[in-house]
Specification:
376 residues; alpha+beta; Immunoglobulin-like; 36% helix; elongated; iron; AIR12_DOMON; metal-binding; transmembrane; transport
């Protein structure tokens, strides 16, 4: 297992710790899927915190730091026992922010799994004139479905020393606070936390965040002592299932996993990607069933020629739709780098070269056979 550490000196002797990540063993794909589903998955999008974050965290007692897996945000914290019934968490949360208006949020959730509804959130809002405000908010089902406005309120956790800052030269937006949580509702070893970034606000009311996959995936269960984050259960393996789904579709077929992901995501649906997949699956099924109706090549009514024309047309249509939908799936995932696109383009180029060689060879054999027939 690879492990990396970094130490950054400041007046408070702040240190930034890197997360651990294990390389994926080369095993049969079905065993890999079973392991992903039956074992907890550790966050892999961890890394060292940025220089801008370190600048923001000066003066705060921060002992842990990590880059969270979505939205390019960073979280720093330290834990101390307030008393036998309460735990104190010093928090710094920030991200690169190039908009004149917007907000960022970090919060904890006492429910069994991390989710937006039920989150006690600290939200910092940046106004167009550059002023910053940091307040407490309670995210309820009513605010999520927009039945009522999201406004500052009291919550069942104590929050002190709330502050926010914006570093102009770094274009970095951050909030900080001291959060005191009851041990009866929040576990230091399994803290459900939620984060979010949005770009619209009306006074003290943050407006809807972007509807991207990364925004919907901004939750996890974090062990504040070790810094490891884990997702348990089938519904919380979405990130891994998406990767497996994408890889299987690039090299073969990953239809069933797509259905699982769709059924486990009731709050959002990517309609174009979904309906294209259904259409592709239907066409592919018909393409396979067409072999049962294949006429003999000696058919006197041109049945074989008509069947062959339709079969080729549907096949080429499927190739175009499949390639387009895979690129759309990669765009939905929004990976941290462009390697997915380039890997898939490389695979397509390789397949094109192989197909071209086979096509040239088949035409060569056709003319060779034809010439031999003419000579006879």
């Amino acid at each position: 297992m690879n492990q990396s550490k970094v130490a950054t000196s400041s007046k408070k002797n702040m240190s930034a710790l890197a997360c651990q990540a294990s390389p994926t063993p080369v095993v049969p794909i079905f065993i890999l899927i079973l392991l992903f589903i039956t074992h907890p998955v550790r966050s892999q999008s961890c890394g060292l915190c940025s220089e801008a974050f370190v600048m923001t965290a000066k003066g705060r007692n921060i002992t842990h730091c990590k880059k969270l897996r979505t939205l390019d945000v960073e979280l720093g914290w330290s834990v101390s026992s307030f008393n036998s019934q309460w735990t104190q968490i010093d928090v710094v949360f920030g991200t690169s922010f190039r908009s004149d208006t917007g907000w960022l949020s970090w919060g904890v959730n006492p429910l069994p799994r991390p989710q937006m509804i039920g989150t006690r959130a600290i939200i910092s809002i940046r106004q167009p004139n550059g002023t910053l405000s940091t307040k407490l908010y309670n995210i309820t089902r009513e605010t999520k479905i927009k039945k009522c406005h999201l406004q500052p309120t009291t919550v069942d956790v104590e929050v002190r020393d709330m502050a926010s800052s914006y570093i102009e030269e770094k274009q970095y937006f951050a909030l900080s606070a001291v959060v005191i949580v009851p041990n009866s509702a929040y576990k230091v070893s399994k803290l459900n936390h939620v984060w979010q970034v949005g770009y619209e606000a009306d006074g003290l009311e943050p407006k809807m965040h972007p509807m991207t996959l990364q925004n919907f995936d901004s939750t996890e269960t974090l062990n504040l002592r070790s810094g490891e984050s884990k997702d348990r259960g089938l519904k919380n393996h979405k990130h891994t299932l998406r990767l497996v789904h994408g890889i299987l579709n690039i090299i073969g077929w990953g239809w069933a996993i797509g259905l699982i992901l769709g059924s486990s995501s009731p709050y959002y649906t990517f309609h174009v990607h979904r309906w294209l997949a259904i259409f592709i699956f239907t066409l592919a099924t018909l393409q396979m069933l067409a072999f049962l109706l294949k006429p003999e090549s000696t058919d006197k009514h041109n049945g074989y020629r008509i069947w062959k024309t339709h079969h080729h047309s549907i096949g080429y249509t499927l190739l175009i739709l499949i390639i387009g939908n895979i690129f759309r799936g990669i765009a939905i995932l929004k990976p941290d780098n462009a390697v997915w696109n380039w890997v898939y383009i490389g695979i397509l180029l390789l397949l094109f070269v192989v197909a071209l060689i086979l096509e040239i060879y088949s035409w060569y054999m056709y003319y060779e056979k034809k010439n031999k027939t003419n000579e006879t």
